Amino acid sequence: MPRKTPTTNALRLLDSRGIAYETLLYSPEIHSAQGVAEALGLPVERVFKTLVSLPAAGERPRPLLAIVPGDSELDLKVLAKAAGGKKLRMATQREAEAATGLLVGGISALALLQKHWAVYLDASAHDADWLVVSAGQRGINLRLAVGDLVAATGAVVAPVARRVSE
């Protein structure tokens, strides 16, 4: 019997807005964008990870979400500048999970719209028509058009990531 595709808040949101997507399933034991790319046979630069950053003391009171390619790391200085702040830091795994209510490896901006956090998408997303992001649960990702992700999340597109080799 085929495995039933679970429904997440991100999937319900996209369905309610009539946004086309493809559901991609993989082992929930995989927690990295590199691992997801390998499991799905996709280029790692098209599998994006959602990272949670927190303000430094006295800065913006809410976390920020940054969506960056799997082969890149978040540039906190550039993100802070894009967000109009001075200094940010990466949330620890515990902080990210507590703030989002989602497990690391399953954090999704699409599942967190009700929190009204600022979302930043790395500009490299426009290097292709589509990207892959988490559906809000480990083991489920979504392939969708870049423009649809931006429209659904209200993401600001900015060059907030740098390739790990740089």
How would you sum up this structure, described in words?
The structure is a single chain. With 166 residues, the protein is α+β, with helices and mostly antiparallel strands. It has a single domain (23-163), classed as Alpha-Beta Complex (YbaK protein), CATH 3.90.960.10. Helix content is 23%, strand content 30%. The chain has five helices and ten strands. It has helices at residues 9-16, 33-40, 76-82, 93-100, 146-153, and strands at 22-25, 48-55, 64-69, 72-74, 88-90, 118-122, 130-137, 140-145, 156-158, 161-163. The protein has a five-stranded mixed β-sheet with strand order 5-2-3-6-9. The protein has a three-stranded antiparallel β-sheet with strand order 1-8-7. Strand 2 (48-55) and strand 3 (64-69) form a beta hairpin. The chain is globular and about 45 Å long. The relative contact order is 0.24.
Proportion of residues in helical segments: 10-25%
Radius of gyration: 15 Å
Number of strands: 10
What is the topology, as strand order, of the major beta sheet?
5-2-3-6-9
Q: What is the multimeric organization of the chains shown?
A: single chain
Please, how many helices?
Answer: 5
What order do the SSEs take from the amino end to the carboxyl end, as H and E?
A: HEHEEEHEHEEEHEE
What structural class results from the helix and strand content?
Answer: alpha+beta
Superfamily (CATH H level) name: YbaK/aminoacyl-tRNA synthetase-associated domain
The top-level CATH class is: Alpha Beta
Number of domains: 1
Instruction: Report the average pLDDT across residues.
Output: 92
The coarse overall form would be globular
Distance between the termini: 46 Å
| CATH topology call | YbaK protein
Please outline the major beta sheet.
5 strands, mixed
Q: Please mark out the parts with pLDDT under 50 across 5 or more consecutive residues, or reply none.
A: none
